[in-house]
């Protein structure tokens, strides 16, 4: 297992190119199963999760070429309808093939994804939505066994305990493309990645409207076409580098990003004290010495994203004053807190709220990553900690960040990867 060695104290400078969005690439690769025509996807990030999704669609019968961030995919025939446990356990987003296989083959057998470090991650809303469209679903031997005589367009209610669901919105949308009649999904998630999936589906011959709002309409019957599609930039990677500038009090430029997807994050950085300069596909972030505390309330898009709260916890650990973060989406997403406390951070967890009292300087430590965003928060803390920080189990980070340490090194950070 690899680890990072980070020498704290370096200032950052220069430009960093933001990669394509992981959370858009994964469902769009699954959505490409809907057509028997050739599909070319550009700006696909070269990540462990993307390679796992490629392994899955190849298992199902796709011919795939992936190089230099371009993925060519052709699925003339679906050869298998099962998503095996040893693939799904590596990446829960494998469940997106449920919607595609039901649409194209009217049956699917997908391993239950199980929970992960940040929470139980149930898929009951996916199942309820697919059942509403006329799917018979049985959970047996750790698998979702799904089949349908035909999918029928319906009104699908996706109200869950924490609001709606990004994954369930996408899964239902995929299945509904081949239903008889129209499907209305409400409340639908309106994250940019959901919009990107809908844009892709419209390009391959489906008819979707309302994406980006809380009500999506999917007209049944999709006339498959071949397509070129460019994946949107990764707003969470962009936000992560913006925090790297703020925490090291540096000035860096994010390129190839989409500033309008970053509003919740950039507004919060400005409130804390960073200066932000946005243009069409660039953002210049300048961290300043005298930042001040703030209160963060995680919310669905366009609110402050849950995928950015760990990074901000690292930042607020060294911002004078008392800050709070309220995590409203996942049950156990403060795993980075205990590791940051080992660096001297003053954090107390009160239920779904973290209270952070900023200190002047973190001290280096041996740290262990627990999940994707917690691991990147530890790296950000290591950039400013006094001494040499090691972050082990960075396979968590490799799932969602492309060439992360190389991008940081190019900005001037002193970080290297070591095989443990
Ligand atoms: C997507 O997860 C993202 N993953 C997550 O990013 C992101 O944090 C999340 O959306 C919220 O924005 C991908 O896109 C691959 P949800 P998803 O369904 O779809 C509950 C990252 O770091 N829920 O919107 O799984 C659920 O437990 C990852 O890149 C049910 O109860 O999130 C959670 O509390 C982490 N039943 C809430 O809803 C269900 O059937 C929102 O989850 C589904 C979800």
UniProtKB/TrEMBL annotation:
It catalyses: phosphoenolpyruvate + UDP-N-acetyl-alpha-D-glucosamine = UDP-N-acetyl-3-O-(1-carboxyvinyl)-alpha-D-glucosamine + phosphate. Residues 7-408 form the Enolpyruvate transferase domain. GO terms for molecular function: UDP-N-acetylglucosamine 1-carboxyvinyltransferase activity. Phosphoenolpyruvate binds at residues 22-23. InterPro entries: Enolpyruvate_Tfrase_dom (IPR001986), Enolpyruvate_Tfrase_sf (IPR036968), MurA_subfamily (IPR050068), RNA3'P_cycl/enolpyr_Trfase_a/b (IPR013792), UDP_GlcNAc_COvinyl_MurA (IPR005750). The keyword Nucleus does not apply. GO terms for cellular component: cytoplasm. It holds the Pfam family EPSP_synthase. UDP-N-acetyl-alpha-D-glucosamine binds at residues 92, 307, 329. Its main location: cytoplasm. Keywords: Cell cycle, Cell division, Cell shape, Cell wall biogenesis/degradation, Cytoplasm, Peptidoglycan synthesis, Pyruvate, Transferase. The keyword NADP does not apply. Pathway: Cell wall biogenesis; peptidoglycan biosynthesis. Cell wall formation. Adds enolpyruvyl to UDP-N-acetylglucosamine. Belongs to the EPSP synthase family. MurA subfamily. This is UDP-N-acetylglucosamine 1-carboxyvinyltransferase. The gene is murA.
């Amino acid at each position: 297992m690899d680890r990072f060695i980070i020498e704290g104290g370096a200032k950052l400078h220069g430009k960093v190119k933001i990669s394509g969005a992981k959370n858009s690439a994964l469902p769009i690769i699954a959505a490409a199963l809907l057509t028997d025509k050739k599909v070319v996807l550009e700006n696909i990030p070269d990540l462990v999760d993307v390679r796992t999704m490629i392994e899955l669609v190849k298992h199902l019968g796709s011919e795939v070429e992936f190089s230099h961030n371009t993925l060519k995919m052709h699925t003339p025939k679906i050869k298998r309808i099962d998503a095996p446990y040893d693939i799904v356990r590596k990446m829960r987003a494998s469940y997106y093939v449920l919607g595609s296989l039901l649409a194209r083959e009217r049956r699917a057998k997908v391993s239950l994804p199980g929970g992960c470090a940040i929470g139980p991650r149930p898929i009951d809303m996916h199942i309820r939505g697919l059942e509403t469209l006329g799917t018979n679903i049985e959970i047996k031997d750790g698998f979702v066994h799904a089949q349908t005589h035909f999918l029928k367009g319906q009104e699908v209610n996706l109200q869950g305990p924490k609001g709606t669901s990004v994954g369930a919105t996408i899964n239902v949308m995929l299945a509904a493309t081949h239903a008889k009649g129209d499907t209305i999904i409400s409340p639908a998630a309106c994250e940019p990645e959901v919009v990107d999936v809908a844009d892709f589906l419209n390009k391959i011959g489906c008819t979707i409207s309302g994406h980006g709002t809380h009500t999506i309409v999917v007209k049944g019957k999709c006339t498959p076409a071949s397509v070129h599609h460019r994946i949107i930039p990764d707003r969470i990677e962009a936000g992560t580098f913006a925090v790297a500038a703020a925490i090291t009090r540096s000035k860096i430029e994010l390129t190839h990003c989409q500033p309008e997807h970053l509003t919740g994050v950039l507004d919060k950085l400005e409130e804390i004290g960073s200066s932000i300069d946005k243009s069409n596909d660039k953002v210049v972030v300048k961290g300043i010495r005298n930042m001040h505390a703030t209160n963060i309330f995680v919310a669905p898009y366009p609110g402050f994203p849950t995928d950015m709260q760990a990074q901000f916890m690292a930042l607020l650990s060294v911002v004078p004053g008392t800050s709070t973060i309220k995590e409203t989406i996942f049950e156990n997403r403060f795993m980075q807190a205990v590791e940051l406390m080992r660096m001297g951070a003053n954090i107390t967890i009160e239920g779904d709220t973290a209270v952070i009292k900023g200190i002047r300087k973190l001290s280096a430590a041996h740290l262990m990553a627990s999940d994707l965003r917690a691991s990147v928060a530890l790296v950000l803390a290591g950039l400013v900690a006094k001494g040499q920080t090691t972050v082990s189990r960075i396979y968590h980070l490799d799932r969602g960040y492309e060439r992360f340490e190389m991008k940081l090194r190019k900005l001037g950070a002193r970080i290297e990867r070591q095989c443990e």
